[in-house]
Amino acid sequence: MEIIQRPRRLRRSSTLRRMVRETVLRTDDLIAPLFIAEGRGVVRPIGSMPGQAQLSVDQLDREIDELIELRVPAVLLFGIPAHKDANGSAAWDPDGPVPSAIRAIKQRAPDMAVIADVCLCEYTDHGHCGLVNTRFDDLNVPTVRGDLPEQIFEPTEPEGYVLNDPTLELLARAAAAYADAGADIVAPSAMMDGQVAAIRAGLDRGGHISVPIMAYAAKFASAFYGPFREAAESTPQFGDRRAYQMDPANGREALREVALDAAEGADMLMVKPAGAYLDIIHAVRERYDLPLAAYQVSGEYAMLKAAAQNGWLDERRAAMESLLGIKRAGADLIITYYAKQAARWIAEA
Ligand code: PBG
Fold first, then answer.
1. Does the Cβ of 195 fall within 6 Å of ligand 1?
2. Per-residue confidence of the chain (349 residues) as pLDDT tens digits?
3. Residue 117 Cβ contacting ligand 1 at under 6 Å
4. Is 272 an active-site residue?
5. Among 70, 224, 295, 316, which one is most buried in terms of CB atoms within 10 A?
6. How far is 11 from 5, CA to CA, in rounded Å?
7. Protein residue whose Cα sits closest to atom 9 of ligand 1
8. DSSP assignment of 225-279, as one string?
9. CA distances in angstroms from 167 to 78, 297, 330, listed in the order given
10. Which one is catalytic: 84, 219, 305, 327?
């Protein structure tokens, strides 16, 4: 047999391979998540996420300087408040960990894009991403009662159900607080229906018409969030998130979720997690022209780290291959705990 096409011809040297390389991971594609703890002098390493730590605002300077030095363009902030309550009121406290961190980062590094995650799960004592169906009488938090939206009990839903509409106003409050503090982008991750529209309306009312929304459009109820919940102390105290986050089996439904967020005014879309959902990333990229982010989540990072620490994988090659795969599937931006390391590897290459 005569072999006519010999693809190997273009693989013979590193120069030829460079020339025909289709996908390039750039430092500009990377977003580094940071966990902001309340208090001072806090540097609390996260056991299941080697290399990551909760940091208090006064401990951020070094981290920000390093990210700037490496030219990582953006950070995504999660807050760990000292006090949690039933309605997550620390989420919109202007002096809470996230607004304080936003101000500190913008002061030190005005060009760093600061993205604020908008969700209640780090701030609620029950650990859910929204208000939980309960009667006022059952709420053991009289001081915040007056601040709760009117409709806290939906008689048709069981107690413990995570309420959609009453949560929207609280998410909008949190997003407004982050925009007031100077956030460049807000990123709602609670998976409440209508959250993008509610946050957009709240931002606009507050004079923040120029603050974009990066919507966690298709966020799946994933086992890969395990280490994050340790990091953010946001494990649900009862039940799980399957009544609001997506079923991992559903691809078409993911596109419906994305369509809704786009229609509600999302400026950027996100798929999360990334590694097990490359088909979703690809499908969203094919159908939508909005910038698309993918979140390589805590469990994906933890797996790579654990294998590397055991000597079972070449960390650099495996991590870069994972990130490249996410990019090749169609993501423009990747939120990753590997941001700093990847930026270093890119600079070295
Ligand atoms: C919810 C939120 C979660 C993550 C980001 N935002 C976790 C969850 O839904 O429990 C997970 C990120 C990760 O695992 O790295 N606010």
1. no
2. 899 999 999 999 999 999 999 999 999 999 999 999 999 999 999 999 999 999 999 999 999 999 999 999 999 999 999 999 988 999 999 999 999 999 999 999 999 999 999 999 999 999 999 999 876 555 554 444 455 654 477 778 888 899 999 899 999 999 999 999 999 999 999 999 999 999 999 999 999 999 999 999 999 999 999 999 988 888 999 899 999 999 999 999 999 999 999 999 999 999 999 999 999 999 999 999 999 999 999 999 999 999 999 999 999 999 999 999 999 999 999 999 999 999 999 999 8
3. yes
4. yes
5. 295
6. 13
7. 225
8. GHHHHHHHT---SSS-STTTSBPTT-SHHHHHHHHHHHHTT-SEEEEESSGGGHH
9. 18, 24, 32
10. 219
Q: Choosing from 272, 305, 327, 340, which is the catalytic residue?
A: 272
Residues 214, 92: Cα–Cα separation, whole Å = 18
Is residue 329 in contact with ligand 1, taking CB distance under 6 Å?
no
Residues 6+ apart with CB under 8 A from 33: 75, 76, 77, 78, 335, 336, 337, 339
The one-letter amino acid code at 338 reads Y
- How far is it, in rounded angstroms, from Cα 313 to Cα 317? 8
Least Cα distance to 180 among 130, 114, 122, 264 occurs for 114
| Vertex 159 angle, CA 231 and 197, to 5° | 65
Whether the model clears a pTM of 0.90, i.e. scores above it, the answer is yes
From 38, 58, 54, select the one nearest 46 (Cα to Cα): 54
Ligand 1 atom nearest the C-alpha of 122 is: 16
- The residues facing 162 across adjacent strands are 132
Query: Has 327 been annotated as catalytic?
Result: no
Which among 287, 289, 280, 267 is positioned nearest to 326, based on CA atoms? 280
Assigned token pair, 124 = 């609620």
Pairing of strands 43-45, 53-56: antiparallel
Expressed in angstroms and rounded, the spacing between residue 258 Cα and the centre of ligand 1 is 18
Which residues lie across from 256 on neighbouring strands?
Answer: none
Closest ligand 1 atom to residue 221 Cα is 9
Residue type, 332: D
**Is there an atom of ligand 1 within 6 Å of 229 CB?**
yes
Residue of 36, 297, 326 best suited for mutating to test ligand 1, as the one with most atoms within 8 Å of CB: 297
